[in-house]
Design brief:
GO molecular function: ATP binding; glycerol kinase activity
Family: Belongs to the FGGY kinase family.
CATH architecture of one domain: 2-Layer Sandwich
Organism: Rubrivirga marina
Number of strands: 23
Distance between the termini: 59 Å
Strand order of the largest sheet: 17-18-16-15-21-22-23
Pathway: Polyol metabolism; glycerol degradation via glycerol kinase pathway; sn-glycerol 3-phosphate from glycerol: step 1/1
CATH topology of one domain: Nucleotidyltransferase, domain 5
CATH class of one domain: Alpha Beta
Number of helices: 16
Radius of gyration: 22 Å
Oligomer: single chain
CATH superfamily of one domain: ATPase, nucleotide binding domain
Helix content: 25-40%
Largest sheet: 7 strands, mixed
Shape: globular
Pfam families: FGGY_C (PF02782), FGGY_N (PF00370)
Bound molecules: adenosine-5'-diphosphate, SN-glycerol-3-phosphate
Length: 500
């Protein structure tokens, strides 16, 4: 019986399970959306129990679809929405609060306080991050401060914190293992990416007891076997990485200077910088790309844009001018240009390189001639402008001219968006045949650890081109549009400050 690798891809809006074969081809997929909770403006929560049950559900479904049993799985790789914080009680295994999602802005005032106290340089030097409510640390503090009895229980050693990978491993092993991988640790604001350990000074600053934190392991090694009813066959869990790092690995951006951009809920561009942790002077993040077993840690520069694909969801659910996300392509393509309309999709603030939690969505340039098609096209441009701003910062930090940008994620299927992106970036866009690169990366990490794949070269040879988009717009025209975009951005900045 041939064996397969199972990737568990726990994303922001859905849980997915994908079975890959030795050629890196998909054998079966199962996916389930789960509920998004928005208790207050700017707050976003998930139910950790639903994250777990949906993830187990899709894993079982994928196996059933392929007619396989757990013992046909050579290894499990896990990849996950990053930064989202789960706190649970070790005694019961139950969460003490909903997961506070990476998009959640509730800790923005505390972050402002930390910045005013002058901690930014220390935080950047140790973690590679900026002080922002995006990262897990201030979310954990919020739970300890707001859930009755949580701080006392944490100080007594009863509470555990984990990003979503930790929560899944804890459940897959019936509470036997409390761990995370180094990529997920690097997104918490509590982990020193140079010493490779949780940092006591940062833990003091955030008021998080060290006893809550998971053990940090590499991204590719056998951590444990599964136990419990679903994976009763003791399948090795052998690879873990945050979803953007996994996509970078799945896209085979494994040499310094190679970059990918994922278009999911948000967009995340990662540029491989090898074993050198390049400190950004242009408001990007320095992050761990992966650590393969005992090999040295490799790093990336990252630009995180919070709202891209979800801006298309807003056209569908909020404005209701399309019925499904793919419909945006025909609507936006029905007009030549936006007729002067610019849309800044800062619905949950702005991430890199602006870092403004108080920015809000803005549409400017509307006239009596503006139609739904112009708004749709301005949305696609708004996505592409944000990504272009990140690339500009990246070029300055790394001092490189990008040869090409590899793309993936749900919205990368949109040819019009990809063409607009190539035009505004003035660089070629390259889309691979398998765009499930996040899951593929997790599968590769796990499969390499158990010898399912023999070498990095073997898997790199599996990458195949689907389509290449060359810039068709002149550099002058692209710059003229950027100038308008920058004016629109200025109008979006700081909008919600007075409500904080
Ligand atoms: N053809 C399309 N054009 C534009 N956006 C799309 C298209 N198809 C999907 N999307 C957007 O892509 C996102 C889903 O991508 P996915 O990679 O599954 O995201 P995530 O992993 O963040 O949940 C949604 O926000 C959806 O609106
Ligand atoms: O789940 P995604 O694909 O929206 O990715 C979320 C990122 O990991 C957040 O940093």
């Amino acid at each position: 019986m041939p064996q397969y690798v199972l990737a568990l891809d726990q994303g922001t809006t859905s849980s997915r399970a994908i079975l890959f074969d030795q050629a890196g081809s998909i054998q079966a997929v199962a996916q389930k959306e789960f509920e998004q909770h928005f208790p207050k403006p700017g707050w976003v929560e998930h139910d950790p129990e639903e994250i777990w049950s949906s993830q187990v559900g899709v894993a079982t479904e994928a196996l059933t679809r392929a007619g396989l049993r757990p013992r046909d799985v050579a290894a499990i790789g896990i990849t996950n929405q990053r930064e989202t914080a789960v706190v649970w009680d070790r005694r019961t295994g139950k969460p003490v609060f909903n997961a506070i999602v990476w998009q959640d802005r509730r800790t923005a005032p505390f972050c402002t306080q930390l910045k005013e106290q002058g901690h930014e340089a220390t935080v950047r030097a140790k973690t590679g991050l900026v002080i922002d409510s995006y990262f897990s640390g201030t979310k954990v503090r919020w739970i300890l401060d707001h859930v009755d009895g949580a701080r006392e229980a944490a100080e007594a050693g009863h509470l555990a914190f984990g990003t979503v990978d930790s929560w899944l491993v804890w459940n897959l092993t019936d509470g036997a293992l409390h761990m995370t991988d180094v990529t997920n640790a690097s997104r918490t604001l509590m982990y020193n990416i140079h010493t490779g350990d949780w940092d006591d000074e940062l833990l003091d600053l955030l008021g998080v007891p060290r006893s809550m934190l998971p053990e940090v392991r590499s991204s590719s090694e056998v951590y444990a076997n599964t136990s419990g009813e679903i994976f009763s066959s003791q399948t090795p869990i052998a690879g873990i990485a945050g979803d953007q790092q996994a996509a970078t690995f799945g896209q085979r951006c494994v040499e310094p200077g190679m970059a990918k951009n994922t278009y999911g809920t948000g967009s995340f561009m990662l540029l491989n910088t090898g074993t050198e942790a390049v400190e950004s002077t242009n408001q990007l993040l320095t992050t761990v790309a992966w650590k393969l077993g005992d090999a040295p840690v490799e790093y990336a520069l990252e630009g995180s844009v919070f709202v891209t694909g979800s801006a298309v969801q807003w056209l569908r659910d909020g404005l209701q001018i399309i019925r499904s996300a793919p419909e945006v392509e025909a609507l936006a393509g029905s007009v030549e240009d936006t007729d002067g309309v610019y849309l800044v999709p800062a619905y949950t603030g702005l991430g890199a390189p602006h870092w403004d939690p108080y920015a809000r969505g803005t549409i400017v340039g509307i006239t009596r001639g503006t139609t739904a098609a112009h708004i749709a096209r301005a949305t696609l441009e708004g996505i592409a402008f944000q990504v272009a701003d990140v690339l500009t910062a990246m070029k300055k930090d790394a001092g490189i001219e990008l040869q090409e940008l590899r793309v993936d994620g749900g919205a990368a299927a949109n040819d019009l968006l990809m063409q607009i992106q190539a035009d505004l970036l003035q660089a070629p866009i390259v889309r691979p045949a398998v765009t499930e690169t996040t899951a593929l990366g997790a599968a590769y990490l796990a499969g390499l650890a158990v010898g399912y794949w023999g070498s990095a070269e073997e898997i790199s040879a599996q990458w195949q081109l689907d389509k290449r988009f060359e810039p068709q717009m002149s550099a002058d025209e692209a710059e003229a549009r950027h100038a308008h975009w920058r004016r629109a951005l200025d109008r979006a900045r700081g909008w919600a400050e007075d409500d904080a």
